Amino acid sequence: MTLYHYIAANKELPLGSFGLNPTYKPISELNPNMSNYVQLKGEKYQKGDQLIEVYETEEDFNGIYIDKPDPHYEAAVRDKLTHPYIYQLEIILSLRPLFLFIEKHLSKGDTIEIYSCLNDEESKEKDDRLDTEIDLAQMRFGKHIYFKKIDELIHMFDLEDKQYVLVKK
Length: 169
Description:
By secondary structure, the protein is α+β, with helices and mostly antiparallel strands. About 15% of the residues lie in helices and about 35% in strands. The strands form two sheets. Strands 2-6-7-1-8-12-9-10-11 form a nine-stranded mixed β-sheet, with helices on one face. A three-stranded antiparallel β-sheet has the order 3-5-4, with no helix packed on it.
């Protein structure tokens, strides 16, 4: 089953993808064996080739996607979150782009909530034992674990099924 993530904030957040760094190349310049790994784009190259989205490195493909959730799922997770604006979050590769997004889009003192659960288990009770807090201003994970950089945090932390996380900036 797929682990879904929801974030909630006290203010509206921008929608879309963040952190991804694609380049666009004509199909003729690519190895034909890579055709299963690329997404076609509707743009045309000046020679008539269709341009496709390519990620040169793994870091280029590291990002998040934020969108409004389906109303059914939003209603199912609303009781696990306290902030009024709820979004569905897709994480691609790692949590690093999520924390960079929080750093960029939240003001000092703001919080964001994250709730994760397996697909179609949104209405089940959250596991209170997994509740945790991350304080980005204090660079603290939980009550007693301090980190120096976001990269250090993402190596010691991952989102789990039925887990609630409060992130403070």
